[in-house]
Amino acid sequence: MNLRALRLLLLCCIAWLAAACSSAPPPRQPPSGVQRLYVLYCGELHIPDVSPWTPGAHAGEPAVFSDNCYLIRHAKGWMLWDSGLTDSLIDKPEGVQGARGMRMMRSQTLLAQLEQIGVTPAQIGTVAFSHTHPDHVGNANLFAGATLYIQQAEYDAAFGPEPAKYGFAPAVYEKLRDTPAVKLNGDYDVFGDGSVTILSTPGHTPGHQSLLVRLPKTGAVVLSGDVAHLEENFDLRRAPAFNFNAEQSRQSMDKVARIVKAEHAQLWINHDAKENAAIAHAPQFYE
């Protein structure tokens, strides 16, 4: 083969390799952001007279409040938002008496639902609660190994000298006293990518917070905690008299409404049983 033919062959090989490389698929990028959101059944509250929660309306009317927990699968790990009523209620089918005549009940444990998904408490590295009332932190002690995200005002009330003053029951969250804690003073981007943002929404308790989750397919969802107990209360900006601060409660509802509008988000009100019935629960999930 002469030199000219050799050069031509070499040029053809280079051109073929270039074409092959350009047609090769790009390297797969690791997943990012929120991948899944599970809604977990975390008990129910049977209320003989709902009027303390709806001041000026529904006097003497009974109600059932739903109670959910939320498990988030993020590229950086698992996060739990709220832990619901204590799993020990599973052994008390008649329920346990709570504040204002309510009866607190559970027909399935949080642990059983996590197991169904294939997750153990030890795998959950991030935990946060809308607030520290027993129907939201009933299983908090199971997650003492996770990093806790909590507003400073809520931490001071929960672990201060008078937790009962705020309706808190320290026995159900006592193990969090020594857990790693990120104490917040406002909104906070949990994973640093805008996909999960804690919203400071005080009023129901001193450091109540809500959660904005941006899902790739479902879009934005706001988990409002007890900013309002019912959709009706939210629409009317109605705050129960037993809230820590009624004016803060209304301001927090206004804030959540602005965010819902700006994000074109769904608003999930935790205790609204009618709304809750339309939400898919685990093992189904939102993407």
How would you characterize this protein structure?
- The chain is an alpha/beta fold and 287 residues long.
- It has one domain (32-276): 4-Layer Sandwich (Metallo-beta-lactamase, Chain A), CATH 3.60.15.
- It has helices at 3-23, 110-117, 134-137, 152-159, 231-236, 246-263, 273-276, and strands spanning 34-47, 63-74, 77-81, 96-97, 103-105, 124-128, 147-151, 181-184, 188-189, 196-200, 209-215, 219-223, 266-268.
- The chain has an eight-stranded mixed sheet with strand order 4-5-1-2-3-6-7-8. It has a five-stranded mixed sheet with strand order 9-10-11-12-13, covered by helices on one side.
- A hairpin with a 3-residue loop joins strand 11 and strand 12.
- The chain starts with a helix and ends in an 11-residue tail after the last helix.
- 41% of the residues are buried.
